[in-house]
Amino acid sequence: MNTDKQMRRLIELGRREDTPYTCMILAADGEIIALAPNRVKKDADATSHAEINAIREASARRNNKDLSGCHLITTCEPCPMCASAIFWSGIRKVSWGLSIDEIAALGHRQISLRMKDVLADISAELQVEEGVLAEEVKALF
Amino acid sequence: MNTDKQMRRLIELGRREDTPYTCMILAADGEIIALAPNRVKKDADATSHAEINAIREASARRNNKDLSGCHLITTCEPCPMCASAIFWSGIRKVSWGLSIDEIAALGHRQISLRMKDVLADISAELQVEEGVLAEEVKALF
Fold first, then answer.
1. CB A47 to CB B89 under 8 A?
2. Which of B79, B90, B71 shows the shortest CA–CA distance to B117?
3. DSSP code per residue over A19-73
4. Catalytic residues of A
């Protein structure tokens, strides 16, 4: 997979919304069915991470909690909350720019568990792409 | 802590809403500031677990993402999504009835990570109460 084009759109959204955390979900045919920034501050809601918002948006659009076959693309590796939401949604294809360790090194507090550790139960089903336009994502911080 | 009374209220809500998963959040003074069932099917949203719903409700009520000092009580041990939401919300006091292993043994699919494993980074700050009215919670399944 090559997700540079989608990541560029996420980086633009991050600049516009003043957050390094943005996420999109593609349907199996490549259509964007959700595009969301982190809204933790805006919504005063600790659960309002970009991935959670995108999963909710995609499910609302489809009126279906099952997003199997979709592809989630996010600027930063999903935290354990978002990794688990991916599990529950049925999404098994995930791309990101910066890893949790790289985000933590930039001074943003993280839970120190990688997505692969949270989703060890389904490691055989997961398709993961890491480091997409990592330097450009880093510039959002 | 003795949370039998609160757990009874959660069990009643579970019966009424036809779900074994219900959650409440108490403010530091004991006031109930959120009370929510799992609404995954109803909302067609994989993220609509009882704990996530309760955290969102409590934050909306207070217009504050920070729920430090609050106590989360839930029928079933928080899954890694909800455990991480607890982390991000600042809640450090958690009570539940059945453990993840007990829920899994009842045939409900789970991510096989205990809350203590997800929240190992803050284990020293966590207050956990397990097994509250476990048999009565089990009867909801």
1. yes
2. B79
3. -S-EEEEE-TTS-EEEEEE--HHHHT-TT--HHHHHHHHHHHHHT-S--TT-EEE
4. 51
Per the residue annotation, which of B17, B51, B129, B130 is the catalytic one?
B51
pLDDT recorded at residue B103: 96
Q: Please report residues of B whose CB lies closer than 8 A to that of A90.
A: 46
Tokens of A12: 């633009």
Contact B91, B23 (CB under 8 A): no
pLDDT at position A54 is: 98
Query: Has this prediction a pTM greater than 0.80?
Result: yes
**Tokens coding B32:** 């109930």
Q: Position of tokens 């991480």? A: B84
What does the alpha-carbon distance between residue A1 and residue A22 come to, in Å, rounded to a whole number? 19
* CB-CB neighbors (< 8 A) of A39 in chain B: none
Cβ atoms < 10 Å from Cβ of B32: 14
pLDDT per residue as tens digits for the range B92-137: 999 999 999 999 999 999 999 999 999 999 999 999 999 999 999 9
Q: Name, in order, each residue with C-beta under 8 angstroms of B77's C-beta and a sequence gap of 6 or more.
A: B96, B98, B99, B100, B103, B114, B115, B130
Contact at CB, B88 and A46, closer than 8 angstroms: yes
Which among B47, B57, B46 has a CA at the least distance from the CA of B23? B57
